Amino acid sequence: MQKRRLGADGPEVGAIGYGAMSFADFYGPTNEANSHAILDACRDLGVTHLDTANVYGMGKSESAIGTYLAKNPGARDEFVIATKASITTDADGNRTFDNSAEHLEQELDGSLKRLGVDCVDLFYAHRRDPRFTPEELAASLGRLVEKGKTRAIGLSEISPSTLRRAMKVFPVAAVQSEYSLSTRFPDLGLVQACAELGVAMVAFSPVGRSLLTDNPIPPASIPDLPFLSGNPRFLEPNLSENLRITERFRALAAEMGTSAAALANAWLLTRGDHVIPIPGTRSVAHFKECVAGAELNLSQEDLAKIETVLPVGWAHGDRYSDAQWIGPERYC
């Protein structure tokens, strides 16, 4: 697989990584055996960047990676592992965020224990806590590098201005954001800022939470998935419109002799050599479709065809509900 660098001075990783939220029943039930099969596939396919978080299944995702590493001596050296922290709950059980140095270090210590490693390669602040300035946050994360608990730091769902301020205090290796043919707001400043500053742009949900695949999640299954059941793009009448529109994309992928998932990931790779998609799935077969995008060389004609079937702004419904928007920074 082609390689991309995770930050200006960071390690080279496969151009497509793996987002391990799917290890935590987020899009349906799974088990450790299925998760380990995905990790086997990562090694077979040259996928070296793994992305997880402490809140994915309240540690379940990290633990699945940890048990795999324990069962496969030497596998740790094949992976570049990222995890995240700062999403928490208050005394009343409401979701909130904590960017304090104490909380971040405590949560990272828990992640290291579940992963069974002494140090992760990348540690993100999962959300920006407005009680702390970007400069204060970068300093707190930077101290974890100095303590040897992470090799690099990252920020998730932040604005270009937050990135620029943080970079003045400590080098940021990666920024994570939802980015795909269905969610293109990062093109309005974040992709450009990352390229300018030598920061990797890690794109989660690169296949639009299944809309940009050959087999979108069936409408009948959505009420059983807590996140999607409240997400505007998966509520009627938006869902039917989104499925209708993306049928043109599925047809285009078939005409090009590939899968919709491969084409969606390949499109992202054309957005800059610092962009790293991290598809997540419970299916090895689907994961192989996503990774195949790294082998596609899209021409300008191909890109024009994609823009024709999925023009900017095609999606019906916001990418998040009002509740889901709490935390991510809006900048456009």
How does this model look, in words?
With 332 residues, the chain is of the alpha/beta class. Helix content is 36%, strand content 14%. It has one domain: TIM Barrel, CATH 3.20.20. It has an eight-stranded parallel sheet with strand order 3-4-5-8-9-10-11-12. Helix 9 packs across helix 10 (284-291). The longest helix is centred in the last third of the chain and has 18 residues, at 238-255. The radius of gyration is 19 Å and the shape is globular.
Keywords:
two-stranded antiparallel sheet; single chain; 8-stranded parallel beta sheet; TIM Barrel
By DSSP (H or I, 4+ residues per run), the number of helices equals 11
Summed up, the domain count is 1
Query: Whole-number radius of gyration?
Result: 19 Å
List the secondary-structure elements in sequence, H or E.
Answer: EEEHEHEEEHEHEHEHEHHHEHH
End-to-end span in angstroms? 34 Å
- Estimated structural class: alpha/beta
In the sheet with the most strands, the strands line up as 3-4-5-8-9-10-11-12
Shape: globular
The CATH homology group name: NADP-dependent oxidoreductase domain
**How is the biggest beta sheet arranged?**
8 strands, parallel
Contiguous low-pLDDT stretches (5 residues minimum) are: none
CATH-derived architecture:
Alpha-Beta Barrel
Mean pLDDT: 96
The CATH topology, please? TIM Barrel
Beta-strand portion reads: 5-15%
